[in-house]
């Protein structure tokens, strides 16, 4: 505070000089007679100057404090001066995150809304980008191709189906006889499903597919949990469920020990540790996953294969052929081999009926060429194969005579099988081709499926598949579809569910998606050449064997 002190001293000196009587001429000054009064006034003036000096010192201190605060603020501002490059980076990152969230919301919104698959006229400008410069065979060529390469296979299907059905019934009857009725699962009658029973199979071997429902022995029953029930099945397991084995005369809350805390001196005779261990062992005997009550698909597969082997050993003396397993990782992929070398394949798949519907839980789904992550053996896939067959039979009755819907699907399956034999297996399967056909059958007028429109409908299905692949979205035909006929009897819980996107795994499996797109475009380019080649070189009445592919 040196400046304040000097200023104060100078102010006192100036005041003293101004008020000193000797500095003024005598004629202008009157010397007071009372000296004490003068001294008193000087003291008062001195006191007022002192107070003024203190006031000035306070004001100077406040001013200095404000100056220091402003200097600190300037230093802080200089310290946090932004870097333009850093600011631009964070801004760009924020924009990327924002648009990513918008895209994820859009995908979720689209997956949760059933799409109208009808092809509008104004969409033709954006559809069919791969069709530019591509000319499909005309109607005459397609009909000629169908008669030479496909129609004869259809007649062979009927003969194989009759043979396999009789043998499968005999084999399952023997299986029931070798099983313990008090401990083993109860096997019911088989149901034929798939392309062989929908009359559009063209690929060899002409394998029949059967589902074989089974139920637990008394007094046990099945209880079901699906991704729709909001229980233990996670939401990302769309299309899957779990099967719990319980006693029909007892539930988890039937005992008082589940509702009341027992004292230390009380023991529940039903749920003691010893009985619980015995209960767990019994659950494993009932093909449950270890230390749980959930049905294990792997144990079911092992049990079914062992039971089939015992059944064949019991009846093998009646037949003049051999029976073997063609695939060990499938519960009942069997092959009949005659002495002449001819073989006939068929599949028996153990399933569990969902409630009182024709929806079934299946542990090993033969149509899933596009897997969505790893799946536990206690997660069972829900198959609508019976409803698919029923819907095709339903629409066939209302379509024109000799309609082209099955012919179109057979040609697509033929082209797809030939392309896969050239480029290798694909994530796009016959099941996806059939799903696309079912969607178009629902949206197109029945008159559009007359035999004269085979070429046009073939183009529609190919364009529909191209659009679905580009958008990575192909909805399951039954789940979330509220426009189905009531005559089918689809459970309401599945019709009201959110649509299930069969192409959802493509979002993460980029390599599989690129490979599938390449295969599809290559198939489009080869379509005309393949049809023309097989039409010219295949003699009338002879079908061309194709490599085996899952349904």
UniProtKB/TrEMBL annotation:
Residues 1-16 form the signal peptide. Pfam families: Mab-21_C. Gene3D superfamilies: 1.10.1410.40, 3.30.460.90. It is a single-pass type I membrane protein. The gene is ITPRIP. It is found in: Cell membrane; Nucleus outer membrane. Enhances Ca(2+)-mediated inhibition of inositol 1,4,5-triphosphate receptor (ITPR) Ca(2+) release. Residues 407-484 form the Mab-21-like HhH/H2TH-like domain. This is Inositol 1,4,5-trisphosphate receptor-interacting protein. InterPro entries: ITPRIP-like, Mab-21_HhH/H2TH-like, MAB21L/cGLR. Belongs to the ITPRIP family. Keywords: Cell membrane, Coiled coil, Glycoprotein, Membrane, Nucleus, Receptor, Signal, Transmembrane, Transmembrane helix.
């Amino acid at each position: 505070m040196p400046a304040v002190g000097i200023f104060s001293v100078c102010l006192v000196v100036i005041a003293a000089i101004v008020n000193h009587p000797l500095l003024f001429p005598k004629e202008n000054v009157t010397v007071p007679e009372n000296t004490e009064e003068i001294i008193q006034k000087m003291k008062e003036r001195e006191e007022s100057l002192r107070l003024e000096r203190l006031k000035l010192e306070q004001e100077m201190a406040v001013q200095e404090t404000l100056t220091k605060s402003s200097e600190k603020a300037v230093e802080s501002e200089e310290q946090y001066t932004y870097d333009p490059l850093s600011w631009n980076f964070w801004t760009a990152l924020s924009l990327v995150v924002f648009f990513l969230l918008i895209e994820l919301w859009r995908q979720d919104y689209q997956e949760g809304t059933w799409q109208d698959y009808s092809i509008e006229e104004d969409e033709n400008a954006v559809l069919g980008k791969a069709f530019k410069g591509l000319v499909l065979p005309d109607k005459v060529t397609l009909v000629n191709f169908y008669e030479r390469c496909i129609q004869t296979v259809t007649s062979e299907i009927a003969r194989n189906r009759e043979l396999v059905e009789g043998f499968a019934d005999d084999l399952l009857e023997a299986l029931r006889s070798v099983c313990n009725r008090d401990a083993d699962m109860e096997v019911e009658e088989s149901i034929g499903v798939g392309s062989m029973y929908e009359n559009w199979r063209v690929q060899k071997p002409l394998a029949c597919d059967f589902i074989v429902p089974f139920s637990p022995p008394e007094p046990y029953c099945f209880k079901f949990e699906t991704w729709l029930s909001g229980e233990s099945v996670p939401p990302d397991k769309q299309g899957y469920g779990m099967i719990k084995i319980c006693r029909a005369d007892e539930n988890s809350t039937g005992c008082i020990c589940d509702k009341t805390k027992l004292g230390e001196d009380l023991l529940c005779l039903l749920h003691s540790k010893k009985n619980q261990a015995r209960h767990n062992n019994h659950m494993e005997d009932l093909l449950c996953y270890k230390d749980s009550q959930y049905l294990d698909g792997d144990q079911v597969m092992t049990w079914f294969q062992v039971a089939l082997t015992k059944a064949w050993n019991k009846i093998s003396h009646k037949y003049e052929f051999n029976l073997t397993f063609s695939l060990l990782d499938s519960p009942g992929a069997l092959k009949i081999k005659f002495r002449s070398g001819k073989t006939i394949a068929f599949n028996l798949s153990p399933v569990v009926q969902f409630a009182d519907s024709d929806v079934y839980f299946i542990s090993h789904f033969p149509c899933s060429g596009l897997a969505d992550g790893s799946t536990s053996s206690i997660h069972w896939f829900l198959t609508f194969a019976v409803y698919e067959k029923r819907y095709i039979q339903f629409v066939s009755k209302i379509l024109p005579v000799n309609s082209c819907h099955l012919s179109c699907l057979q040609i697509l399956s033929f082209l797809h099988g030939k392309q896969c034999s050239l480029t290798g297996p694909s994530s796009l399967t016959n099941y996806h081709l059939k799903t696309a056909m079912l969607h178009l059958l629902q949206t197109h007028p029945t008159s559009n499926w007359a035999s004269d429109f085979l070429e046009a409908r073939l183009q529609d299905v190919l364009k529909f598949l191209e659009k679905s692949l580009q958008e990575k979205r192909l909805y399951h035909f039954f789940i979330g579809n509220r426009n189905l006929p009531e005559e089918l009897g689809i459970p309401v819980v599945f019709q009201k569910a959110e649509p299930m996107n069969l192409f959802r795994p493509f979002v993460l499996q980029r390599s599989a998606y690129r490979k599938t797109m390449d295969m599809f475009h290559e198939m489009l380019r080869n379509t005309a050449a393949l049809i023309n080649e097989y039409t010219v070189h295949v003699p009338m009445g002879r079908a061309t064997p194709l490599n085996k592919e899952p349904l």
